[in-house]
Fold this sequence. Notes:
Layout: E1 3-7, H1 12-23, E2 27-34, H2 42-52, E3 55-60, H3 62-78, H4 85-104, E4 109-111, E5 116-121, E6 124-129, E7 152-153, H5 161-171, E8 202-206, E9 212-216, E10 239-244, E11 249-253, E12 259-270, E13 278-284, E14 292-300, E15 303-313, E16 320-325, E17 328-339
Parallel strand pairs: 1-2, 1-4, 2-3, 4-7, 8-11
Antiparallel strand pairs: 5-6, 8-9, 10-11, 12-15, 12-17, 13-14, 13-16, 14-15, 16-17
Helix pairs in contact: 1-2, 1-5, 3-4
Amino acid sequence: MEKVVIAMSGGIDSSVAAYLLKEKGMAVEGVFFVLFDEPAHLELVKNTADFLKIKLYVEDLREQFRSQVITPFFEGYKTGITPNPCVICNQKIKFPNLNRIAKTINANYFATGHYARIVKINDISHLLKGIDSKKDQSYFLYGIDRSFLQHIIFPLGEYTKKQVREIAEKIGVPSKIAEESTEVCFLRNRRYYEMIKPAKGGPIVEMSTGKIIGQHRGIHLFTIGQRKRLGISSPYPLYVVKIEPSQNTVYVDSKEKAFMREFIATELNWLYDMEDREFSCSVKIRYAMNPEKATVKLIDKDKVKVCFDKPQFAPTPGQSAVFYKEEIVLGGGIITETVQGF
């Protein structure tokens, strides 16, 4: 019997994923990662593990999570970028530790409740989108070590969220009562900018005229494409179109100025063998968007220039750009600079 260890959070996704693995006849063991103080749903996870009759490990990763995810998250905002902690957590915390635990307990595989798929093509494992287009989470997974793909199982990749809820209801798993996890788990419904110490204020400049039209209380309060909390009256809606940390300046303008065609991405991670230095693919620059056609040009081994066929709204430094060939995730990187069309 093949053994698999699965990350369990207390939500229905990981709980149903564990159930489906058991239904396949696998020997399933669970692990709950303690990532910050007062973790949510620990007792619920224990109840679910008892319900499913699986062994549960509890791993304290608070120090690792604090240094590699939480601290860079807040420091990033201070420097004018918008980090994506879920991507970093998967890359540096969740999957490396699952791999480590799997080896420790002699498990053949490790699993999570992500909506994504692992498919073998010509005997090579590839990461694919989940079949539920509204719930597909492959965007958050591009950064994982490619060598892990042959050991990962995503039981929910072939299911829709509706089907998962129905399974949870049918089997009566305790975790069905758990709330959906928030995107930034460690904020626990708090606003990130309220947790950053007051920073140096500076000017808000209208990009098209160069005029100072307001003052801000810190660049950490803003992200590209933002419309709310500007505190400026204007005859037309204003959006943040650029943040210049060296000048401590926030630039705003009309929404159309937040649309850009080109950007640079670094910290690349490839999950597919790319033979050409320039290729066409589809690209997502945020989770909640459809992939858009673009050309990707490799500048050096850890830097690409991406040019969309059509301008896209608010490519944002610090966020991830993920490259797709139809359903297959090719890889991705972190947006570091954008090319304004004005």
